[in-house]
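Inputs:
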Amino acid sequence: MKIQKQISRKIFIRWTVRLILGISLWIWYRLTRFQTELENKIEFVHGEDIPLGVSYFGKYYIFHSENSTRAFSTTCTHAGCRIGKGSEAILQCNCHGSQFDGASGKPLKGPAIKPLQEFDCSFNKQSGQWIVKFHRDPS
Amino acid sequence: MDINKIKKLIQFDTAGWIAISGLLICVLSGILLAIPYDFTHSFESVTGILLFNPSATLVRNLHYWSAQVFFIFTIFHIYDHLNKSTETNIRNSRTWLILCIVLATLGYEMISGFILKGDAGGIQARRIIASLLRNIPLAGNMLSSALTGSEENWQIIYIQHVATGTIILFIGVYEHVKRIWPKPRSFALIFVLLLLISLLFRAPLGMVESSQIKGPWFFIGIQEILHLSSHPSYVISLIGVVFSVFYLIPRMSQRIRRIIKWFLFVGGILYLSITFCALLFRGENWQWQGWNDFRKSDEKLVIFNPVNLFNSDSIVFTPENQKKEGCLVCHGTTTGLSESHKPATIGCFACHKGDPFTSDKVSAHRNMIKIPGNFSNVRQTCGTQNCHPDMAGRMLNSLMTTQSGIIGVDKFVFGETPSLNDTFQVKNLGHSAADTHLRNLCASCHLGNDKLTTGNSAWLERGGGCNACHLHYNDEALKSMKRMQSKLPASGFGVHPSIDIQVSNDRCKSCHSRSGRISLNYEGWNETTLKASAVTDSVHQKVLPDERVVEYVQSDIHHQKGMACIDCHGSYEIMGDGKHQVHKEDGVKVQCMDCHLAGNPKSVLVARLSDRESQMVAWLRKIDPKNSLVVTAKGEYPLMNTRVDSSERIWLTGKLTGKNHLSKPPSPICTKGKGHNRLSCESCHTSWVPQCIGCHNAFEKDTKGYDLLTNKQVTGTWVEYAGIGFARAPVLGVSDKIPGKIVTAMPGMVMTIEKESFGKGEGTKFHRLYAPASGHTTVREGRGCKSCHNNPLALGYGDGVLIYRISGSAGKWVFEPKFARNEHDSLPEDAWVGFLKEGRLPNSTRSWLRPFTVKEQQHILEVGSCLTCHDVKSKVMEGALEDYSKIRLQRKRECIMPDW
């Protein structure tokens, strides 16, 4: 009986610790998810006169042409660096040397192989403004 | 002293205890560093520490160097254990696990310390670590958030660095050795050594907007591997595998342990080799760099910059929006620079390098680039990724840098290349006869020729990279420069020469007063063979700074109207379009018809300009975004100083004068009928071009000369003896580039080369090559019919008497040349082609240019024979202009056509 009591207490403590750890992890998970979503749900507004070509706005850039206006993330799809203005419509990542086509966000030179993430970019006729919706996928 | 005693003195303690001493000093200095450091403005606070707070600088240095000692000696300590196989002493797997966690934490502490300095490398490193952590399955996002925080808020990474990481390290150390205090003697010795190092060598800091990103030295190997791998998750896995293997080492059999250790050792050596190579030889955008580039690169590992603890200077007030650079402490009040290059905005370092994080004059000026913009430093100065990378790239391929056309033609006449269409680069000139000829006579006129002295470029000081056009010293700037050179106190406060886009004609003259001499022609001056002492008429004659004498003929209509060279020639011409061009016509984009056209011009809205450079120029010149600009037919480049109004008229604004000019459409005669539709505008509207013939070249081995490429005096030089020169209407020829187009030509290489004087058995070469002429002597009124159809000069026969003789019912053209016939080809000295003869090959400096064929000459002279009887304005000639074939069929019996 005595041995059984000792084992059950040990099991109890072990499971309690595991439970606390689990709850802590769950809270941590919820907390970080909420924080990430909060940081990524942002909207940016621009005037009507966006110049042709690449306009760079830190976290994203807008490529404006005669036919379309698109917004892309400036986070390199390779290792997360911020890509910078390269020559003309080419964007350059100075961390590992990738290059992207400004018009389509497609990689022109490795190591990056995935295209840049595209954001919603729409024109609001009422306000006469371009709206870029920042919705980076946290995964 | 006994060698063992020296050994004992050096090996005063074990690597482990040295590491712990380093850790303690690092933590203590970290506590002090927390006072001036502000994680909300990390870069600014670190800059402030370096510039104004010597004590904090010392503490920061101590913090950095002690961290390096801790890191390096921990690695040595691990190596010691693995080498002696004493890792098996740790039987408790929990202790070994904690040590592994400590190792990971050490890596985190080192990288987070690198991040917290807040320069470009630090900011990007945070992003990389965050992204790499996110790649870890399941817990990636949680770890990333917990260890790297967010882009805007560095509170988390700061807290983890100063608190969490430090606590884990101390727990690990205590768990490992059951005490925390090293021997006082070791501690004191390490402290003194670190203090000495910290007093002399500054902890590194890069620029916040640097485009050359290098991680911390211990991370550079990983950066290289990441550069080679498209899947960062593999790198994370590799790091995970190394840690797992390390964790499992004590549990492995002795044989496997030995193999694993061997792999770890070889891997470590390889990693160090990659690190070393990347540190030294990796330049911007993963291009190879040499030792000199490494020295000039933005971030250095070891910077000798002694801390002056007794510096009595008080903190200098700096405007909030001013760039935080030490240079501005002294040079902050410098004026003279244009808006785009204001020191408050871009600082001094971006152009002049040196050390921006010290207020010590000597250290600040070490490795400084006195004259930025030379092509030898353009990649570190004007052409960095943040400034003008496109332009620098284009310039390096432009004709004004390569001299391709000049070299190609010269090598062709020397018989060193069979083609006129090859590309060359002046920097690659060797020492052949042609190359030496170029070195002695031509090789100074290229932008790669570095400007070596401050001040405005002298006439013979050609080149200078970007400075050739964009650096302007006004009187105030010149006074400032002289004051600075005098090293008087407070001489650093002054007027900087401006860097701008207001390029005057004088900038072009030094080089473009040679060969085609377009700069002189444009203003109406023709070079003579007179000596300076022979000048008698100071109004119509003048002496150039290089002693050549020019006399006034007639200036270009555009010059008379006040237009400058840059009013027509835009940046994509002058600075190139990025392509390797062969000849000048490849570089020139603008044509007369871009502004002087009969229909509606092709235009683009300023707001619709697609290239960044044109957008920048539009902003600099404050051009209304609603303006429509003329676009060149060739290449579709916008002419930035033009405007197309609502009536489709073209206006051109002088870039230097601000004066508006209304562009006129071509005269009706230019576009009337079929007669002249093959004529280029220049063929009628060029009033004169400089022409020289009979030039003689010989190599004089005892004469002192100059190697213009190396800027050194040499003994033995090619000497050019000029022949006769005159200013007269251009010769006409045919371009096969635009088939059948009639263009202007002028003597290009009508010369004798005594190759024998350079190398035995080479003989003497004679060439009669004409070149396409861009006269730059445009006149409003075109040349008359007779000026072409009855003129031996226009037809390429040279000066002389061209007469249409009628004898009975037969007519015959006869030509009596003025100049004697050349012994080499029996043509008159000033001729391009023989009278009613086919041109002999080679006859031009271009593969596409040729004189008129016999059939074409006959056709022109046939019209000329009509003009001997019919007035230019007669119905017959007017009709001929509309349809010559029809008029020819309707001719009367008394019309006598030439008999060929």
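Residues 565-590+599-664 of chain B form one domain. Flag for discussion at group meeting.
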